[in-house]
């Protein structure tokens, strides 16, 4: 069964929101060009022309206790991932100041491991405080696993505004990807972050063997949780991980997923992260298919897109960017 996606786009602009009882599978069965046109129209009408850029730094690498099958930093797998302890404040300040000068909106520290505590937590809090003082206009985002509410409140007091906690996939498929923590742990973390006064950034990784229904279920849950920054990572198989031989998504599949996520989350920043290098031009078509945010620069264990090249692409597409300094 097909649906009139352009008509549906207009209905969403007028206030309709897609729910589980809708025939959302039909979104994947229609014309891809029309799906992209509809998603782009929703983006323009409900989100405007601004593009939201973020950059991340790996603050502590390797030796992670969790067994996420996609991750090079898990201690359960033998990969070429570099292991190192928590970086010094000067390392974070240097990267944050560079991101600020390049006109990036958000800067995030990401650490390997189930959580952040003890001396590393204290170092992190001090680093956030210093970065906030030096770059007061930069939105600080952090990703430190499963934290407790009181520590999340400490982040907020140190100048952090956003917490990153990916769902990764659907509730049904999650046990196929990780067994050292649960889907409920993920959802609890999102609620704790909101309770601490933090905005939430949460999305997932596509191409791990999930079905289209799994993708829709994740998109619907993010909508229910009122998450407005949704990073979409498209799996880059890493040697030594259980998913090293996973079949890569086609570019058309990636484009369709991006558009569907914006149909379901029409006021969100659909943030394209890992996997843009599957496209020769940095994934320009994704930003004509509903995407309106991106990770830029080097990203953890995979290579990201050059920020200067990204800015030129977004300017050509008509997006407005934060000014460089």
Task: Describe the protein.
- This protein is 36% helix and 14% strand.
- The termini are far apart.
- Strand 2, helix 5 (118-134) and strand 3 (139-143) form a beta-alpha-beta unit.
- Strands 5-4-3-2-1-9-8-7-6 form a nine-stranded parallel sheet.
- It has 325 residues and is an alpha/beta fold.
Summarize the structure.
This protein has 325 residues and is an alpha/beta fold. The protein has helices spanning 5-13, 26-29, 32-47, 89-101, 118-134, 149-157, 183-195, 212-224, 251-264, 307-316, and strands at residues 52-60, 106-111, 139-143, 160-164, 199-201, 204-206, 229-234, 269-272, 293-295.
Q: Looking across the biggest beta sheet, what order are the strands in?
A: 5-4-3-2-1-9-8-7-6
Helix proportion: 25-40%
Report the total helices: 10
β-strand amount: 5-15%
Question: Radius of gyration over alpha carbons?
Answer: 19 Å
């Amino acid at each position: 069964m097909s649906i009139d996606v352009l008509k549906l786009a207009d209905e969403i602009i007028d206030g309709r929101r897609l729910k589980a009882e809708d025939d959302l599978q039909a979104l994947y069965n229609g014309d891809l060009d029309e799906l992209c046109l509809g998603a782009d129209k929703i983006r323009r009408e409900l989100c405007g022309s601004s593009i939201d850029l973020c950059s991340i730094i790996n603050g502590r690498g390797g030796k992670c206790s969790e067994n996420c099958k996609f991750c090079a930093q898990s201690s359960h797998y033998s990969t070429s991932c570099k292991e190192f302890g928590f970086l010094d404040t000067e390392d974070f300040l240097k990267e944050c100041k560079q991101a600020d000068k390049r006109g990036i909106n958000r800067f995030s520290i990401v650490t390997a491991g189930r959580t952040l505590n003890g001396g590393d937590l204290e170092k992190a809090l001090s680093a956030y405080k210093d970065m906030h003082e030096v770059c007061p206009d930069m939105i600080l985002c952090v990703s430190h696993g499963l934290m407790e509410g009181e520590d999340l409140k400490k982040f907020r007091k140190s100048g952090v505004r956003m917490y990153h906690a990916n769902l990764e996939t659907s509730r049904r498929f999650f046990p196929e990807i990780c067994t050292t923590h649960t889907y409920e742990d993920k959802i609890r973390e999102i609620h704790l972050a909101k309770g601490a006064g933090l905005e939430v950034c949460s999305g997932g990784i596509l191409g791990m063997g999930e079905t289209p229904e799994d993708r829709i279920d994740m998109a619907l849950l993010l909508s229910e949780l009122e998450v407005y920054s949704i990073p979409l990572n498209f799996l880059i198989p890493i040697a030594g991980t259980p998913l090293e031989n996973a079949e890569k998504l086609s570019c058309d599949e990636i484009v369709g997923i991006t558009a569907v996520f914006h149909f379901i989350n029409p006021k969100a920043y659909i943030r394209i992260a890992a996997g843009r290098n599957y496209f020769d031009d940095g994934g320009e078509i994704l930003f004509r298919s509903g995407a309106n945010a991106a990770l830029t620069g080097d990203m953890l264990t995979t290579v990201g897109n050059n920020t200067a090249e990204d800015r030129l692409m977004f300017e050509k597409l008509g997006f407005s960017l934060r000014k460089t300094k």
